Each structure stands twice: as structure tokens, then as C-alpha cells.
UniProtKB/TrEMBL annotation:
Record's keyword annotation contains Nucleotide-binding: yes
Species in which this protein is naturally found: Kushneria phyllosphaerae
Domain Pyridine nucleotide-disulphide oxidoreductase dimerisation: 353-462
Single GO MF descriptor: flavin adenine dinucleotide binding
A Pfam family: Pyr_redox_2
Active site, per annotation: 451 (proton acceptor)
InterPro entries, per the entry: Class-I_Pyr_Nuc-Dis_Oxidored, FAD/NAD-bd_sf, FAD/NAD-binding_dom, FAD/NAD-linked_Rdtase_dimer_sf, Lipoamide_DH, Pyr_nuc-diS_OxRdtase, Pyr_nucl-diS_OxRdtase_dimer, Pyr_OxRdtase_I_AS
Name recorded for this polypeptide: Dihydrolipoyl dehydrogenase
Gene Ontology cellular-component terms listed: cytoplasm
Length: 478
């Protein structure tokens, strides 16, 4: 038997590495197990988010957006740029450098905080023991007073579109294209599909997004979703709803996709096809018999509100448990669990977790949509303010979108905040903070916002709940 630890974390993604560092900061002896190996054969930390998810995709989104701005929009600002070119290989190299810097940074943080990095695949055994099998197949077993499972998730594969090297790829493969495909198909109009479709559309692909559902972004407020679809359509994304893929064929290094829609059976040929139909919890070979940890019918580890599993001293966080599959949600759960293990009274507010789609403009929300609130039985009052009436948005040449505040009409308490617009992913933090403190729309309306800023749209939306927005036609007088 090898060393015994106060805490062993299985997985070094955003949930796992944060849990490990926090536990070490609290004075506990901590180890973190990670099996991810980069192209050089080196174990790296950061999980999907840093290696093939949040960070690399945002690097490509930002680069491609700047390219479109320089090519199509700078002239409107008086900046004349001619013959703008995109070097895809250079863009990819920068993406890889960004990833390497951040994953290396986590390894440095482990050393600085005294976290023992265990390289290999972790498996939970009965009695809070963890077996770690290295890449050569050698195993070592460690004991822990507490175990935190943070094994993350993997892309869902679908039988009609089996992954085929270089042609039919998942979200990870879509981050590795070395040239712009002329015709790109995307299965799934969710967050990942829209982001990746946007990247390659900006760089010159003809992008068709096939979504099996009849509704667009059903998790988003209807008004915001409708505006998002309109804007992305104007940008050239061909989003087809009610399009269920039934099969794919590879012919002459092209992908022929068969799908059905309201008009019957259809067929379309692409140079590349990205499958983005969601993610599933990763529990393969994770749990030995007799651990006491239970899975639900969808493969998620069952936990309570504090991420405790059915087995005493064993916790699970992040994508492998219920709730939205978001890096920041996993990180906050990691902090909470580390504090609980240390004996603190910690909890997490799952009603105030923000979500962001990093298209341009960005889409962000927290709390309930107008439709969700009504379904929950609330009498709802909403305030909406368009960025077209924002001085800073006009100055930025970014007037698309709006901010929306959803409230309980009887108490004025904020139930949700929804934004589509430039930097919505940053602005939504104001809504998160407001909801975390149980704010009313009046609280936001009475708060002084800097001028000129995009955040004033949130202020005006709060004022608009009672018809008192300043910079748009009012419906009410005091």
C-alpha cells in the first residue's frame, strides 16, 4: 500500500484541480490523479476545458472574430485595411501555445500548493482506496480519508454518424482542422455546435447546422433565442430545425448526410461533419464493485446538494453529477466540497449559475427565463433594453441584442437576467451577483452604473421593469 492522503481527487479538470488546490490550501495532504496525455506523451492537467474545450475554442472564436472585424467592419470605423488574410496554421499554433501555458500553469500551482500529482487512470475501490494505473499498465493503490470524483464528461456519439478520422469529428476534432472546409456540416444547434459553426463560418466555410429539435435553444429565454437565431442567420449560419440525421456515407473523401425534416427525406454533402449532440458523464472503469457509489439511469453519479455520494467520505463534482455541464459550476463545487471536508459549513447556490454562448454577439443568462418563471407559477414582470439605444454600444459599433430582467411581479425579486450583445459573458456577472444577494429590480435600478458602458443596458432593463427606462420610450410615469 502506498501513501495515505487526506484527500484524493480523481480528475484534474476545472472541478478536480480546484478541489485539490483548495483542499491543500486548507492544510490537507492532497493527491490528484490525471490520465490526460498531450501530443508529446506528457501528462497534462486541465481536463476537457483547457485541452480541447473552453480555452482552445475561445482562442479560435476570438481570432476568427477579429479576422471578420478587420475584413468587414474596420472600414466603418475609418480604418482602411486591404487584402486581409487568415493563416489557419498560425491560428492553430497560437491556440496550442495558449493551452500549453495554462495546463503548465496548473502543474505549477500543484507544486506551489503541495498537491501530489499522480499520473495515470484512477479507479475507486471499496474503503476509499484509489487504484492508479500508469500508462505502462503498472498499478499502485492509495488510501484516502476522503475521495473526490471529478472524472468529467465526453462527447456523445450517435450511430447515424460514426466518427471517421478527419471527416466526421467530434468537438475536439473540430479544433484541429488545418484548413478551412468549403462545406461544413454541424449536427446539433446547442452551445458547442453554434460556437464551432461560427468559427469556421467566419473563416469562409458554408455552414449548415442540423438540429433534430423543432425549437432553437430551448434552455434560453424565448425572446433572446429568437434574436440569437435571427442574428446568426444574418451572419450566414444555415440553421435547420427539425432535421434528424438518419445516416452518413463516406464517398470520395466527402461526407454524405441523410436526414429527415418536415419535407421528408433529405441528403446533403459536406467536406467535414462535426457531431455536437451533447456530452455524457465519464464513468468508464471508474468504480469497482462494492464502493457504494451509485449511478442514475443516465450514468450520472448520484449525489446530494453538497455533492456527497451514497458512500461516506466519497464526493463527486462537475460534469459527472447532476446540473449543467459547465466548468465554473464544477470549480465552485470543488471549492464547496474541499471546505466541507475541512469541517466548514459550505453550500452552493445552484439558482445563480451563469451560462454563456461565445458567439458574436455573445449570449448569456442566469436564473429562470420568462417562460420558466411562468411555468413555475410566478406572475412575471420583465424589463428589456436594446443595445441599439446604448451610447457605448453605438460607439463600439456593436448595437445588436438586448438585456432582459425577469422579476416576480409580487415581490420585485429578480428571477433571471438574460443578455445577447457584445461582452454578454462579462455583463452577466452583474445579474449573478444581484441574484446571489436576493436583489430586486429596484435594487439594480437604484445602483449607479458607470457611463458610458455596455453594463448600463442592465441598469436600464431593471428600470424598464416598471416602465422607467431613461433612454427609451417609457410606458409609465412616476
Amino acid at each position: 500500500m502506498a501513501d495515505k492522503f487526506d484527500v484524493i481527487v480523481i480528475g484534474a479538470g476545472p472541478g478536480g484541480y480546484v478541489a485539490a488546490i483548495r483542499a491543500a490550501q486548507l492544510g490537507m495532504k492532497v493527491a490528484c490523479v490525471e490520465k490526460w496525455v498531450n501530443k508529446s506523451g506528457k501528462t497534462v492537467h486541465g481536463g476537457t476545458c483547457l485541452n480541447v474545450g473552453c480555452i482552445p475554442s475561445k482562442a479560435l472564436l476570438e481570432t476568427s472574430h477579429k479576422y471578420v472585424e478587420a475584413r468587414d467592419e474596420y472600414s466603418e470605423l475609418g480604418i482602411e485595411v486591404s487584402d486581409v488574410q487568415m493563416d489557419v496554421k498560425k491560428m492553430m499554433a497560437r491556440k496550442e501555445k495558449t493551452v500549453a501555458n495554462l495546463t503548465g500553469g496548473i502543474s505549477a500551482l500543484f507544486k506551489a500548493n503541495g498537491v501530489t500529482a499522480l499520473e495515470g487512470t484512477g479507479k475507486l475501490l471499496p474503503g476509499k482506496k484509489v487504484e492508479v494505473t500508469d500508462h505502462e499498465g503498472n498499478s499502485e493503490t492509495y488510501e484516502a480519508a476522503n475521495v473526490v470524483i471529478a472524472s468529467g464528461s465526453v462527447p456523445v456519439e450517435i450511430p447515424p454518424a460514426p466518427l471517421t478520422e478527419g471527416l466526421i469529428v467530434d468537438s475536439s476534432g473540430a479544433l484541429e482542422f488545418q484548413e478551412v472546409p468549403k462545406r461544413l456540416g454541424v449536427i446539433g444547434a446547442g452551445v458547442i455546435g453554434l460556437e464551432l459553426g461560427s468559427v469556421w463560418k467566419r473563416l469562409g466555410s458554408e455552414v449548415t447546422v442540423l438540429e433534430a429539435m423543432d425549437s432553437f435553444l430551448p434552455v434560453v429565454d424565448d425572446q433572446i433565442a429568437k434574436e440569437t437565431k435571427k442574428i446568426l442567420g444574418k451572419q450566414g449560419l444555415d440553421i435547420r430545425l427539425g432535421a434528424r440525421v438518419t445516416g452518413t456515407d463516406i464517398k470520395d473523401n466527402e461526407v454524405v448526410v441523410k436526414y429527415t425534416d418536415s419535407n421528408g427525406e433529405q441528403e446533403q454533402t459536406f467536406d467535414k461533419l462535426i457531431v455536437c449532440v451533447g456530452r455524457r458523464p465519464y464513468t468508464q472503469s471508474l468504480l469497482a464493485d462494492g464502493t457504494g457509489v451509485e449511478l442514475d439511469e443516465r450514468g450520472f453519479i448520484q449525489v446530494d446538494d453538497t455533492c456527497q455520494t451514497n458512500a461516506p467520505g466519497v464526493f463527486a463534482i462537475g460534469d459527472v453529477v447532476r446540473g449543467p455541464m459547465l466548468a465554473h459550476k464544477g470549480s465552485e463545487e470543488g471549492m464547496m466540497v474541499a471546505d466541507i471536508i475541512h469541517g466548514e459549513k459550505a453550500q452552493m447556490n445552484y439558482d445563480a449559475i451563469p451560462s454563456v454562448i461565445y458567439t458574436a454577439p455573445e449570449v448569456a443568462w442566469v436564473g429562470m427565463s420568462e417562460q420558466q418563471a411562468k411555468k413555475e407559477g410566478f406572475e412575471v414582470k420583465c424589463g428589456v433594453f436594446p443595445f441599439s439605444a446604448s451610447g457605448r454600444a453605438m460607439a463600439n459599433n456593436a448595437t445588436e441584442g438586448m438585456a432582459k430582467v425577469v422579476t416576480d411581479a409580487s415581490t420585485d425579486r429578480i428571477l433571471g437576467v438574460h443578455i445577447i450583445g457584445q461582452h454578454a459573458g462579462e455583463l452577466i456577472a452583474q445579474g449573478v451577483i444581484a441574484m446571489e444577494f436576493g436583489s430586486s429590480a429596484e435594487d439594480l435600478a437604484l445602483t449607479c452604473f458607470a457611463h458610458p458602458t455596455l453594463s448600463e443596458a442592465v441598469h436600464e432593463a431593471a428600470l424598464a421593469v416598471d416602465g422607467h427606462a431613461i433612454h427609451m420610450a417609457n410606458r409609465k410615469k412616476r
